Amino acid sequence: GENVEQHPSTLSVQEGDSAVIKCTYSDSASNYFPWYKQELGKGPQLIIDIRSNVGEKKDQRIAVTLNKTAKHFSLHITETQPEDSAVYFCAASMRPGNTPLVFGKGTRLSVIA
Amino acid sequence: KAGVTQTPRYLIKTRGQQVTLSCSPISGHRSVSWYQQTPGQGLQFLFEYFSETQRNKGNFPGRFSGRQFSNSRSEMNVSTLELGDSALYLCASSLPSADTQYFGPGTRLTVL
After folding, report:
1. Is B22 an 8 Å CB contact of chain A?
2. Are B101 and A34 inside 8 Å of each other by CB?
3. Chain B CA closest to residue A95
4. SS3 label, residue B108
5. Torsion angle of alpha carbons A111, B3, B4, B6, nearest 10°?
6. I want to staple A95 with a disulfide (CB 3.0 to 4.6 A). Which of A32, A34, B12, B36 is the partner?
């Protein structure tokens, strides 16, 4: 089955700097890669996703890149703000269909003001 | 539009008891998935329901079960609770054949 590895497990950046979180997946059939942000006491919130027919996607300060050949995908957050502090999860699955999301172990991002 | 709601938000049970958790999906969403989140194992898939049928099941013992009602609301049940069942149980809903899953706030279960 699918296996998703996520690095780093913790990341501290100064406010205004960029943050990069990387994930690798094992199943080449996976074609849907969402990123979730989880704040304390809340459920994961989708922040951006990418499908395998696209190499890069941006939404304001957030971008995701996908390298299908290497089976890598990354989350880039620019101009970080204290409210970006949270745990971020990557995931992979094959969609459409009923294959479940397989999550990485998460990255705790701390943005220091 | 209201988001995914889960009740109760917090539960404390003792070993050997059973527990039922409830999830109401976003209006119009007919697919409901359940995940267990623990510090050690992260987010792990439990099962998915669509139109009252279980479509997929994760690698959890038979003590974990679920069901979905005709209004798409779902419940999960854990019988004979063990200390290791302490976790945040998350429910996510999605439109049929859609990629995006939307999560609820979770139910924090503590087993003493």
Report:
1. no
2. yes
3. B99
4. strand
5. 80
6. A32
In three-state secondary structure terms, B85 is helix
Find the residue in B nearest to A39 (Cα).
B105
Residues in chain A within 8 Å Cβ distance of B32: none
Enumerate the residues of chain B whose CB falls inside 8 A of the CB of residue A40. Answer: none
DSSP state string for A60-97: TTEEEEEETTTTEEEEEE-S--GGG-EEEEEEEB-TTT
Q: Is A86 on the interface with B (CB under 8 A)?
A: no
d(CA A46, CA B99): 11
Q: Are A32 and A96 in contact (CB under 8 A)?
A: no
- Any A CB within 8 A of B103 CB: yes
Sign of CA dihedral B55, A49, A89, B101: negative
User: Which bin fits B62, alpha (ψ -120 to 50), beta or left (φ > 0)?
Assistant: alpha
**Under the phi-then-psi rule, with left for phi > 0, alpha for psi from -120 to 50, and beta for the rest, what region is A100?**
beta
A105 touches B: beta carbon within 8 Å = yes
The tens place of each residue's pLDDT in chain A, 113 residues long, gives 899 999 999 999 999 999 999 999 999 999 999 999 999 989 999 999 999 888 999 999 999 999 999 999 999 999 999 999 999 999 999 877 668 899 999 999 999 99
